[in-house]
Every structure is written in structure tokens, then in C-alpha cells.
Amino acid sequence: MALAVVGLAADQGSKYGVFRWLYDGSFRGEREVVEGWFKLTAEFDDRVQPCDCSFHVLQTWSAPKMPRVNHGALFGLGGEHKGGANQVFAGVSILAAAGIIIWTARRATAADGWLCAALGLILGGTIGNLYDRIVFNGVRDFLYFYKIDWPVFNVADCCLVCGAGMLLLHAFVAPAASTPVPEGQAAAAVPAPAK
């Protein structure tokens, strides 16, 4: 769970920090990181106003304008449906987070450090993007490999991809657990092959 907290803090800290740093009153702020390859980008949307609710301070901490957000999922999947897609993916995030919390509460899971690390990264990324979906009605993205025109992403996405990769690797590499025979019971005899 510690890795989930670290991932969530890194995600939200980087989103608020980069959007605040790059805001200059215009529609878009950019900062080159690797010349010709990679930059930080923050876009803002004049058409969307901060809500008149308790989220107002959270929405305007980085800038007085609302950030432009991705309403969909990976590679903008479902983004054209805006509010509907955001609600569906928020619901999926809640279910995924609950499932991961239940999974990590199992004794066998807690004893497997690699599995806990993978689930922690996935949980941190899931909650990071869920926070954005609740507060901003979409996910704030700012990391852009423009040389290959990779879709803009964020730290939560990195946590999700790395955690999922670790989980997949764990599924193929981890040794199969042997099923212990309950005390007082003999293992079932395997019949000898017929002659």
C-alpha cells in the first residue's frame, strides 16, 4: 500500500505542479525537456468554468482557468462522449480500486512482495486518475513524446502501465504455489498405470 501512496502523491504533485508552472495566462504552456523528442505541455480551456462547489479550490489551485482534460481512457478511448465516458471510467476505477484493496488484504498476496508492488502501482495510478475524474471531470495529461506523436499521458498512466506489466510478468514467472495437504489427511493415491 505504501507504493500506492507514493504513486498517488507523485501523480497529483506532478499534475498540480506542472500545470501551475506552465500557466502563463494563455491557452497552452509548454517546456522542452529533451530537444526534438519530449516536452511537458499543459492546456487550458476557457469554455469550461470552475464549479460553484467545494471542488472550486482544487480546480483552480494550478491556474484560474480549468485544464483541458481527457474524458476517455488510454489513447483517448471513449473521449468523444465526454461526461458519459468519464462517468463509466470513474465507475470502472472505483471497482478496480475496491478489487485491488480486497486482493491485497489476502494473506497470500501480502507475502508476495512482487505482487504487492504491482498492485500498489496499479492502485496508485487508478486513484490518481479517479481523483481527476471526480474533481476535473476528466484526466489531466502533460507528458508528451512528440517526436513519435505518442498520446499525451501522466504519472498515473505510468504507474498503471508499469504495474500491469509487473503483474503480467509475475503471472508467467512466479512459481506455482503447491497446495498444502490438510493435517491428518493423506495425499490421494495416484493409481498405477494399467499393464
From TrEMBL:
Transcription regulation is among the record's keywords: no
Mode of membrane association: Multi-pass membrane protein
Gene Ontology CC annotation, any one: plasma membrane
Name of a matching Pfam family: Peptidase_A8
Membrane-spanning residues: 88-105, 111-131, 152-173
Pathway: Protein modification; lipoprotein biosynthesis (signal peptide cleavage)
Known catalytic reactions: Release of signal peptides from bacterial membrane prolipoproteins. Hydrolyzes -Xaa-Yaa-Zaa-|-(S,diacylglyceryl)Cys-, in which Xaa is hydrophobic (preferably Leu), and Yaa (Ala or Ser) and Zaa (Gly or Ala) have small, neutral side chains
EC supergroup of this enzyme: hydrolase
Active site: D141, D157
Keyword field: Aspartyl protease, Cell membrane, Hydrolase, Lipoprotein, Membrane, Protease, Transmembrane, Transmembrane helix
GO molecular function per UniProt: aspartic-type endopeptidase activity
GO terms classed as biological process: proteolysis
Record InterPro entries: Peptidase_A8
EC id: 3.4.23.36
Domain of life: Bacteria
Localization of this protein: Cell membrane
Protein family membership: Belongs to the peptidase A8 family.
Main function: This protein specifically catalyzes the removal of signal peptides from prolipoproteins.
PANTHER family in alphabetical order: LIPOPROTEIN SIGNAL PEPTIDASE
UniProt protein name: Lipoprotein signal peptidase
Record organism: Fimbriiglobus ruber
Gene this chain is encoded by: lspA
